[in-house]
Amino acid sequence: MTKPPVIALLGGTFDPIHNGHLLSAQELKAVLAADEFRFIPCHRPPHRATPGVSSQQRLAMVELAIAGKPGLSVDGRELQRDQLSYTIDTLIELRREYGEHAVLCWVMGVDAFCHLDTWHRWQELLDYAHIIVMARPEATLPTQGPVAELLAAHQVETVAVLLQQPAGQLLLQTLTPYPISATAIRQAFREGKRPSQALPEPVLNYIEQHQLYRSE
Ligand SMILES: Nc1ncnc2c1ncn2[C@@H]1O[C@H](COP(=O)(O)OP(=O)(O)OP(=O)(O)O)[C@@H](O)[C@H]1O
Ligand SMILES: O=C(O)c1ccc[n+]([C@@H]2O[C@H](COP(=O)([O-])O)[C@@H](O)[C@H]2O)c1
Description:
Layout: E1 6-12, H1 19-32, E2 36-41, H2 55-66, E3 72-74, H3 87-98, E4 103-109, H4 110-114, H5 125-128, E5 130-135, H6 146-154, H7 159-162, E6 170-174, H8 182-190, H9 201-209
């Protein structure tokens, strides 16, 4: 049988996408030997206010950020659903498209993972994909409660074990920490600064051309 594809999926508000996302994605893609690392900008984030910057502009910035970077792609499907961007809906669609054998890996930061039990139909997520948590050396994980129980039941220790199944397992993968956040970037622009180290140049240019994040 031919080797099934390994697809990593990073959902986010990407308001804006930044070098922390990109560098982590490239590192994780290499760790997984993934065929593709796909960014999935959300349209209407379920757990935060709708961003001031439009979904189309956030998508455009992701497109600019990944242009020319092999193996990185963007998927705008959540913009087609005019409802809250629930991850379970996206994973059900992707599993249907890729078939039962593809290895689908939903990627998230450790902060997001700590609140996973607040997500819509969160107990079904592992039916459709693995979850990979981008951990930091100092990251604290819950030791009790539903997320701790999920971890205890589904955690695997290595990528090799994870890749033996198409879905259903949880991996904490320590990556190089990049202390960059979109919140700090938006704040920097509001203060009239130019956070050029935190952003890919085409994204920085786009933000300036469209005068984004000047006020909020
Ligand atoms: N510097 C970073 N390194 C690794 N992962 C990150 C980093 N910043 C964000 N992430 C993760 O990427 C995903 C999408 O993040 P998101 O678009 O919300 O960016 P953010 O920088 O966390 O934004 P904000 O500051 O507005 O919350 C989340 O799972 C988040 O945990
Ligand atoms: O499905 C949910 O209930 C859910 C709740 C919170 C966040 N998410 C997804 O998690 C991803 C990261 O969200 P955020 O707000 O940290 O950018 C993004 O793809 C969201 O759609 C999904």
